[in-house]
Amino acid sequence: MTLPILGWQGLVVLVVFGVSLLIATYSTYAERVIAAFLQDRVGPDRAGPFGLLQPLADAVKLFTKEEFFPAGANRALFVFGPCLAMVTALMSSAVIPFGNVLQFGETAIHLQGIEINVGMLYVFGMVSLGVYGIMIGGWASNNKFSLLGAIRAASQNISYEIAMGLALIAVLMISNTLSLREITFQQTSEAPFVWNDIFNWNVMKQPLGFIIFIVCAFAETNRTPFDLPECETELIGGYHTEYSSMKMGLYLFAEYINVFVASAVMSVLYFGGFNFPFQAELRNWLVSSQGLELVTAQNIITILGVVGLFTKIFSFIFFFMWVRWTLPRFRYDQLMRLGWTILIPLAIFNIMLTGGLITFGVIK
């Protein structure tokens, strides 16, 4: 049975959402394993072989916990807050190109949920909307610690979104497009020099912009050392202090999905996305030496590109977790000072530097 193209793309969207949820679920397991390794102790090892069923056990625990509503809380908004955080996190992954095109006869399947020519703005907008879920949940809890955590999250996200947006402007100046797919294609080359793809990645043209972006990504995802909205030492648990059951789980899953999306966006914008070295040579070798059809060879390259992209994504996720268990938390004044007095001026300088390099033909 053949599906129309909209049916195939709808299936891709469901797969993308499913993969996002699966990665978020097992990111909790990876976090515990990495923490145990760095602290020289035993991690989860009871639920299933090597503790692989621990995320499922955690999900069952969250689903079966008693629902709790604080006295004086706005019940509708108390439930709506974590739902909004989860929905915006999932929607951010819809425009990320996870691979090139798979061709089966007359059917071409784009390994991307939706392709829009303003994909970069779409991701940026969805990430910006996510803070409303935190703000609504913190305010609706009728708890001063939750409200303080929500206010911290809002001011932190606003501050670091400015520097992140300025870093993206420098990428836009080089690529002349807001489409994540087009940006990915621009970071490849058919030149015979096999490492030319790596030198064509935007991280080689924008090293300062990448550093600014990854620091802002830590702040946007509320990860250590910028996890001030949920600082246990002074705010108990921050904006989700009063949450339990699956509502708490939605906030936790949303954070890990945001980490996955941030890692994917960095891989696409700065590290070539699904491109990898030797891909042109490998495709030509499959056609000339192995006798494969060009379409079949290209499908193999596409699958390898998906594997390469997820390797980059998992490397960034590991980096997020490594930093959490290595660096101490910033003070709140240090956090705001870093964003306003260091990152934003650096991002503006990066734009001016990029403009000068483009003007004099150093960067094309």
Outline, from the CA principal axes?
globular
Task: Trace the largest sheet across and list its strands.
Answer: 1-2
Q: Total domains, how many?
A: 1
**Mean pLDDT over all positions:** 86
Helix content: 55-70%
Low-pLDDT ranges: none
Strand content: under 5%
- Characterize the quaternary organization of these chains: single chain
| Class derived from helix and strand content | mainly alpha
Main β-sheet, in a few words?
2 strands, antiparallel
How large is the radius of gyration? Answer: 22 Å
How many strand elements? 2
Subcellular location: Cell membrane; Membrane
EC number: 7.1.1.-
InterPro entries: NADH_UbQ_OxRdtase_su1/FPO, NADH_UbQ_OxRdtase_su1_CS
Main location: membrane
Could you please describe the fold and organization of this structure?
- This protein has one domain.
- The longest helix has 34 residues.
- The radius of gyration is 22 Å and the shape is globular.
- It has a two-stranded antiparallel sheet.
- The model has no long low-confidence stretch (mean pLDDT 86).
- Helices cover 67% and strands 2% of the residues.
- With 364 residues, the protein is mainly α.
- Helix 2 crosses helix 11, helix 3 runs antiparallel to helix 4 and helix 3 packs parallel to helix 11.
- This is NADH-quinone oxidoreductase subunit H.
- It is a multi-pass membrane protein.
- NDH-1 is composed of 14 different subunits. Subunits NuoA, H, J, K, L, M, N constitute the membrane sector of the complex.
- InterPro entries: NADH_UbQ_OxRdtase_su1/FPO, NADH_UbQ_OxRdtase_su1_CS.
